[in-house]
Every structure is written in C-alpha cells, then in structure tokens.
Amino acid sequence: MNKIIITSILFLLASNLTGCATKDKGQIFQSTLRAYERVFRWGDIPKTNEFRKEPVLFTSADKKRFKSIKVTDYDTQQIEPDGELTMNVTVQIRYYNEEYMREKSIEDNQRWHYEKEKKLWYISSQMPKF
Description:
The chain is an alpha+beta fold. It contains two helices and four strands, in the order H-H-E-E-E-E.
C-alpha cells in the first residue's frame, strides 16, 4: 500500500515539473511577443534584430525610412504551434508614413523558434515590407 502511495506522489511531482517547464516556455514566448510588439510600436524597427539569430542588415536609407513610419495598431490575430519548438504568428500591422500621411495595413506572418539551451525564442521570418 505504501509503495502505491509513494509511486503516486512521485508521479504527481514529475507531472508538475513537466508542466512547469512547458508553462515556462509558453510564458517566455508571450513575453517575447510583447517585447517585439513594443519595439514595433515605438518605431525602433532596427532593434528587432535583438530578436533574431541572424540579424537583418539595415542600410542608412532603411533606418531613415523607418523613422518616418508610425505604427498605429499591432494586432496579433493567430498563434499556431508547429511542433514543440516552433510557432507561427499572424499579425495585422496598421501604420502610416509621415511623408504620405495615409494609413496602410499589412499582414506579418512570423515564424518563431525556441532554443532550449538558451531558453529564448527567435524570429526567423522576413521583415514586413512597409
């Protein structure tokens, strides 16, 4: 009888530890998405390289153009897991360019990968075309 109780307790402890690891990965993903959104909302688009393993090379012309882009809405529409370590995210971005003063909308299809060793999520998809 004691062996059954001890086995049950060990099983519950192992289940809880496994659940915490999954929850931590999910929490890290959510906080990474919020941080990435903040970078876009504040117009610091070149700073998105902090979320990439392989940075995008921005020219001085790109950086100048990004300064005139103002994001008015960043709406995460869909988050879809693609296996255990990859997430596909669809975001609708509304913005305007100060030079033209006309609001536009683009869909940004993002692909995120989790690196277990570093416990970090990285985006690997292309930058949206503003």
